[in-house]
Amino acid sequence: MTTLSLLNNGNQLAYVHHKSTLPDALGILFCGGFKSSMQGQKALALEAFCTTHNLSYTRFDYSGHGVSSGNFTNGDIGAWLSDALCVFDTVTSSNNKTIVVGSSMGAWIATLLTQQRANKIAGLVTLAAAPDFTEKLLLPALSEQQCSTLAAGKNIHLASDYDDGSPYPISNNLIEQSRKHCVLDKKINLNLPVRLLHGTNDQDVPYEFSVQLMETIQSNDITLTLIKNADHRLSSAADSKSITNTLQSLIEARQQG
C-alpha cells in the first residue's frame, strides 16, 4: 500500500489509507503514541482487521514522528492534534462515519479530536490511555536539575524502552504548550459510544488514568475494560483480540441500530 502525504503547518504528514469498496462503510482512524510511528504493531494489526472486514482505515505519522517531516522537539499535544484533525478532515471525509482509536498519548489526542468532530464520529476507543501525561507523569518524574535545564530553554533526554531504545528528547515547549490541552480537569460531553481498554500490569501508564478518563467523559454508553496482566503495549495476540472484538461489537451495534 502506498504511503501518501499532505501538508499541515508547513510539515508533510505521511499517511496510509485503505478505502472500503462499500459506499456506506464505517472507517477507522488510528492515532499512535508518543514517538511512535504508523508502522507499529497495533497500527498494522488494525489495518489487517479493517481489510478483512472491508472497512476504511487510516494510519498516519504526526509531525516529527515516523516518516513525516518536522522536528519532534517542536511538537506538542496541540500541534499533533492539529495533524490528526488535518488527516481526519482531509482523508476520512469519504467515510460514512469514523471510529477513532487512540493508543497511549494518541488516546489523549483522539479524545480531543472526538470532542471537536463528534458529529462525524461513530465511536471512540482508547488503548492504555495517557491523557495529561506531560503534567501527571512526566513533570513529577523530573529532577530539580532537569527542570532547571528545561526552564533555560535546553532539551533533556529521558530513557526509553521502546523502538530502538534511543532516549526521548523533551523540550519545555512540549510541557508548556500541552498544558493548554489537558482534559482530566473538566467534563467532556460525548453523545457516542466510548470504549476504554487498559492493562492491569501497565508499568508506564497506570490503569487509573483510564479510570479518570472514564469519569471525565460524560456519555450514556461508556465502558472500561481492564485486561489482567496486560502491559502498556497491548500487543499480545490476546490483547489484539480484545481490541478487535471491541471494534467488532461497536460496528455490529451500529449496523443493528
Which short descriptors sum up this protein?
single chain, 257 residues, alpha/beta, Rossmann fold, eight-stranded mixed beta sheet, two-stranded antiparallel sheet, 8 helices, 23% strand
Walkthrough of the structure:
- It is a single chain.
- The protein has 257 residues and is an alpha/beta fold.
- It has eight helices and twelve strands.
- Strands 1-2-4-3-5-6-10-12 form an eight-stranded mixed beta sheet, sandwiched between helices.
- α1 links the parallel β3 and β4.
- It starts with a strand and ends with a helix.
- The mean pLDDT is 94.
The strand count comes to 12
Tell me, briefly, the overall form.
Answer: globular
Number of helices: 8
Q: Give the % helix.
A: 25-40%
Domains, number: 1
Q: In CATH terms, what is the fold-level topology? A: Rossmann fold
Give, in order, the helices and strands.
EEEHEHEHEHHEEHEEHEEH
The value of Rg in angstroms is 17 Å
CATH superfamily: Alpha/Beta hydrolase fold, catalytic domain
Chain oligomer state: single chain
Strands of the widest sheet, in order across it, are 1-2-4-3-5-6-10-12
**Mean residue pLDDT:** 94
